Amino acid sequence: MDILKKRVAYWSPHISPVATVKAVYNSAKSLKTFSKFKFDPEIIDAFGEWNKSEYKNSEVNFYQFNNTRLINKISSNGYFLSRLKYLMIFIFCFIPLVKYLKLKKPDFLIIHLITSLPLFLNLIFKFNTRVILRISGKPKLNILRFYFWKLALKKIYKITFPTVETYEFFKKLQITDNEKLYVLHDPIIDTKHINLKKREINKDENEFNDYYICIGRLTKQKNFSFLIKCFKNICALKKNLKILILGEGEQRDKLKNLISKYNLQENIFLIGYKKNVFTYLKKAKGFILSSLWEDPGFVLVEAIYLNIPVISSDCPSGPKEIVGDDKGILFKSNLEKEFIDKFNYFENLEEKEIKKMKYKAKSFIKKFSIFRHYNILNKKILI
User: Which of 50, 144, 232, 327 has its Cα between 20 and 30 A from that of 35?
Assistant: First the structure.
């Protein structure tokens, strides 16, 4: 029976626990769960980055490259070091990935993160593997990158996008055949996993009540400094307001100093990284996303699944698709007055209006389910 299975490999090396990691795992899990006799999924663990993951000891198979662990000795803090680490991944994983594709001969290779290496290898070698590229966000293409992509994409089997916005943007580039392009929403909602996690108890269970919540890495992208500046004005009038920020990153000290500068120590709390965010999400009054860019904004979907109303920046790419049309509150990205006005509007909404908003949002996010993702993979992508 195993001989008939199509082998599907996932390439997604990562230097920090970004949300895409969850999408990769859930995608592989969907193939394992819903098609036991059709697909044999496997995640490539390029340099031991999946060892620290909560997913490593699970039902999904991992393939560990050898002699690549030196990469782990390089810090990924800051722009220069992270770029150096990307270069090291390219160099140290070059031969292992060639060997893997030549010896293991997967039917499909789905690539998510650090895509330059498999794109380059697929361009210069002939493998019996169909490569599927996932593109998130709107790529900035200078002349050199444009022509590299144009050349590389000729040999790509299919290209998937997590949002309609990114899909439409890429179509307009006319860089490859539109027949290769598909919208494939990320498999964010694993109901069994989320329902199990939200029942867990955390040690802060009774410490915080009636709070808003923000979740994400403490980086420029998430734009928490903007949020803190906005709440400086809001908390001047609403002294009892509480905001929890879950996550870690290079901007922790900067954000901590901002909170002290504006005397918001009793209002805004940097909780740190939490493996299980659902115990915090389920009790929140609302979820706030202040990002400068997303694609699509995983935690937006998770918050909506838990019936938490959302307030989100209208940043590229994804939040408008998820929150627009009265499924939540959208504000123009990085505009302080706009956010304050929209936040106050939400605070004054009647309960029946919030319920209507939550109902519309929850109906929409069904397309992010792990089963819906599998159906599209099975019927349109892996064929």
Answer: 50
Domains of the chain: 2-191+368-381 (3.40.50.2000), 192-365 (3.40.50.2000)
Chain segment 276-286, per-residue pLDDT in tens:
899 999 999 99
List phi, psi (to 5°) of 145.
-65, -35
Reduced to 3 states (helix: H, G, I; strand: E, B; else coil), residue 210 is coil
User: Which residues make Cβ contacts (< 8 Å) with residue 73, sequence separation at least 6?
Assistant: none
Q: How many CB atoms lie within 10 A of CB 128?
A: 9
Question: Rounded to 10 degrees, what is the CA torsion of 175, 180, 181, 182?
Answer: -170
Per the CB < 8 A criterion, the answer to whether 210 and 238 are in contact is no
The pLDDT tens digits for 78-110 are: 777 788 888 989 999 999 999 999 999 999 999
Around Cβ 135, how many Cβ atoms within 10 Å? 21
**Cα three-residue angle 316-320-321, rounded to 5 degrees:** 105
As a whole number of angstroms, the distance between CA 381 and CA 383 comes to: 6
Q: Could you give the CA distance from residue 296 to residue 291 in angstroms, rounded to a whole number?
A: 11
The three-state secondary structure class of 240 is coil
